Give the backbone structure.
Amino acid sequence: MNFPDDLRYSPDHLWVRVEGNLAIVGITDFAQDQLGRVVYVDLPSLGQAVAAGQEMGAVESAKSVSDLIAPVTGTVAEINEALADSPTPLNDDPYATGWLARIELSGALPGDLLDAAAYRKLVGQ
């Protein structure tokens, strides 16, 4: 499994890449592997306020439906609209074309975000 070292990871299996005051968010390789083939994604709305630890959407696979728990606090600045037509990138390329949302941060990153080594340990890799 792939866990890029330049990302931070939430215990809820989302990754975060910070670019200036934006946090790009997506599901981890571990999460997509556990879910199986993703068939639908319910993304947050543009302009929606999200709070770390709170639900911001959901991902549905043939196996289950999983809530997307916001890893950061802020306002949704952009969503990956291409996923509405085809959520395939969530499985095929979760760290690039499979991103979910860009969130304008309204404060510091939460302290529970993990580096790649700690996330690997969390998921037993």
